[in-house]
């Protein structure tokens, strides 16, 4: 991929003022097109659509290609991703670590990838059915944590809260407790809200009623409960906001800028840098204002 084909901003920027900790790194953007966070591994081709479900093989081939071009000699490596890519960075973190010698410092960053297994407005787990279909369609089980799938339904191991206790490589979570994708597709999906009572609220928090705000706050509590398994050791870092947003590390205004979101007077870029280079333990959460709010776009 040519750099002109992709917007290298935020954590991918090559400008020191905009990305002080990683601007001079070799940066690679991997196109995401398999629909399973690179876990697909089916030999057969769908005869009706000619679709190939082989995302895990794509991931392996790309990494091997990069290793052959010099990445195997890297002193430091960071696997990061946003949304489905953020989920992939969690699911493949230990696998990515294994590609390098033990002397290489390897860590993973997940941005907006901590999809929570929580009840929706109907009081059920309707989004779980979507993960059931993904895992079955793509044959994902062989690329999920094997210890995890030995203990529970395989599709549950697609959820970070069940997979992450088995991940040994250092991980940083960048996330919002009011992640817009999760509000719109997990909490208040059309299946969970068939009458569309939450439609305006999930698109614009200024249109939410008092009761709906309370329901969003309850969702925040459930998300934080799902996050509790992450652990608080020094290798685990996090920057958790209350932004009504989805994805932050690839947007310059959110990553580092005059109006970027800050916790403890640190922007996201500064917090991630401190964590990666072991300058300090970084475990930051916005507990001052638990209401959803708009952040920079």
Automatic annotation (TrEMBL):
EC number: 3.1.1.-
Gene Ontology annotations of biological process type: cell wall organization
GO CC annotations on file: plant-type cell wall
Intracellular or extracellular location(s): Secreted, Cell wall
Main location: secreted
Keyword presence, Cell wall biogenesis/degradation: yes
Alphabetically ordered keywords of this record: Cell wall, Cell wall biogenesis/degradation, Hydrolase, Secreted
Enzyme class: hydrolase
InterPro entries: PAE/NOTUM
GO MF annotations, alphabetized: pectin acetylesterase activity
Family: Belongs to the pectinacetylesterase family.
Name assigned to this protein: Pectin acetylesterase
